[in-house]
């Protein structure tokens, strides 16, 4: 896809998530910072689009969905780029449980070769969703739909 972000995910009437905006994934501005893309793109050292880049973006979508904040919040582009150059790691945001961060952290590692495949990523997200559903059933607390 190459352009995955929360604003490009819609949910069908049956609850199935759908990815849209495929036409935007072509011809992106090389060198322009995109907060949902991996360091390899933003530092100009990798290919785009790539499956590894989509896994990275999926991790950031999970963060955005859980926290309500866009990746890197209000940091200016130069600050984000400097952070990517210096450590390459995405800082753990507040609001993620340990099990969620353990998964997301694997999606947003600096080296795209160290990220899970998309099939593995989907399995990991499904397991998180299953565990959360079990927790909600056990406690009666729905943290997604609770304001």
At the first level of CATH, what is the class? Mainly Alpha
The CATH topology annotation reads as: Transferase(Phosphotransferase), domain 1
Query: How many individual domains?
Result: 1
Give me the CATH architecture, please: Orthogonal Bundle
Could you please describe the fold and organization of this structure?
With 147 residues, the protein is mainly alpha-helical. The protein has a single domain (31-139), classed as Transferase(Phosphotransferase) domain 1 (Transferase(Phosphotransferase), domain 1, Orthogonal Bundle), CATH 1.10.510.10. Helices cover 43% and strands 4% of the residues. It contains five helices and two strands, in the order E-E-H-H-H-H-H. It has helices spanning 39-42, 51-67, 77-86, 98-107, 118-139; strands spanning 9-11, 17-19. Strands 1-2 form a two-stranded antiparallel ribbon. Helix 2 runs antiparallel to helix 4 and helix 4 (98-107) runs antiparallel to helix 5 (118-139). The longest helix is centred in the last third of the chain and has 22 residues, at 118-139. 22% of the residues are buried. InterPro entries: Kinase-like_dom_sf, Prot_kinase_dom, Ser-Thr/Tyr_kinase_cat_dom. This is Protein kinase domain-containing protein. GO terms for molecular function: ATP binding; protein kinase activity. Residues 1-134 form the Protein kinase domain.
């Amino acid at each position: 896809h190459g352009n995955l972000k929360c604003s490009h995910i819609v949910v069908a009437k049956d609850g199935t998530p759908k990815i849209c905006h495929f036409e935007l994934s072509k011809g992106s501005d090389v060198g322009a910072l995109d907060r949902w893309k991996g360091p390899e793109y933003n530092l100009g050292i990798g290919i785009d689009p790539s499956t590894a880049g989509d896994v990275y973006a999926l991790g950031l979508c999970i963060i955005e969905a859980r926290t309500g904040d866009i990746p890197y919040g209000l940091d200016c582009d130069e600050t984000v780029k400097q952070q990517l150059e210096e450590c390459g790691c995405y800082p753990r945001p507040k609001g993620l449980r340990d099990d969620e961060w353990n998964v997301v952290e694997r999606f947003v590692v600096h080296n795209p070769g160290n990220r899970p495949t998309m099939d593995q990523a989907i399995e990991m997200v499904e397991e998180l969703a299953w565990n959360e559903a079990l927790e909600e059933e056990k406690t009666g607390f729905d943290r997604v739909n609770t304001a």
